Amino acid sequence: MAGSTGSFDTEAKKPVGVDAPTGHGKMILATLRALTFATSLTAFLLMITDKQGVTLPNPDGTSTRAHAKWHYDGTFIYHVVATGIVFIYTLAATAATFTIKTANAAFVFFLLDLVGSYLLISSVSSVVGVAYIAREGNSHLGYGEVCSIFDKFCNQIIASGVITVASFVFLLLAVIVGAFKLMKHWAYVS
């Protein structure tokens, strides 16, 4: 039944090749990873330099000095760690993009890009939630807004969040390009 139409082939299907994707895909991946590096580094630097001190008046006529710093909140610490991991990874991945020789290595970088994108979106989601409460408050829970007092601090957090969203988009595009390149590469013989 080897030549008849409708027969079943009992042999296992094998990948066409073992080389990594080549061509424009590597240049696109390198560019997207470089953009991710630049934006995640910027978001990281914005966060670690974010601090503000203000003088608040007391009812008795004296004043108190209050400070807001990024490391006072676990959400902001997570954001700094996540963007730090991603910018270090994407620096290494951008450099390694042109030296990847096998599809297995390309697949590992695809998975690492995917994990990096998860880190970015989870950290920016938590930062946006905290920034929203800081800007708007929550009367049901008794949280007052603090951005009218710590305006520079809040604006820098929001800027870091917006830049992190751009970083996520670049890395997500790298994941999509990597997936398509690997799909085309690992086409199976029918």
Written description of the protein model:
The chain is mostly helical. It has one domain (24-54, 69-185). 62% of the residues lie in helices and 7% in strands. Strands 1-2 form a two-stranded antiparallel sheet. Helix 1 (24-48) packs antiparallel against helix 2, helix 1 runs antiparallel to helix 4 and helix 3 (103-136) runs antiparallel to helix 4 (151-185). This is CASP-like protein. Keywords: Cell membrane, Membrane, Transmembrane, Transmembrane helix.
pLDDT under 50 segments (min length 5)?
none
Morphology call: elongated
Individual helix count: 4
Please write the string of helix (H) and strand (E) elements.
HEEHHH
How far do the termini sit from each other? Answer: 16 Å
Judged by helices, strands and strand pairing, the structural class is mainly alpha
Helix content: 55-70%
Q: Beta-sheet strand percentage?
A: 5-15%
Count of distinct structural domains: 1
Order of neighbouring strands in the sheet with most strands: 1-2
Quick one: how many beta strands?
2
Tell me about the largest β-sheet: 2 strands, antiparallel
Q: Radius of gyration in whole Å, from Cα?
A: 24 Å
Briefly say what this structure is.
The protein is mostly helical and 190 residues long. The protein has four helices and two strands.
Q: Could you give the topology of this structure?
A:
Elements: H1 24-48, E1 51-57, E2 63-69, H2 74-96, H3 103-136, H4 151-185
Antiparallel strand pairs: 1-2
Helix pairs in contact: 1-2, 1-4, 2-3, 3-4
Subunit structure: Homodimer and heterodimers.
Main location: membrane
Pfam family, one: CASP_dom
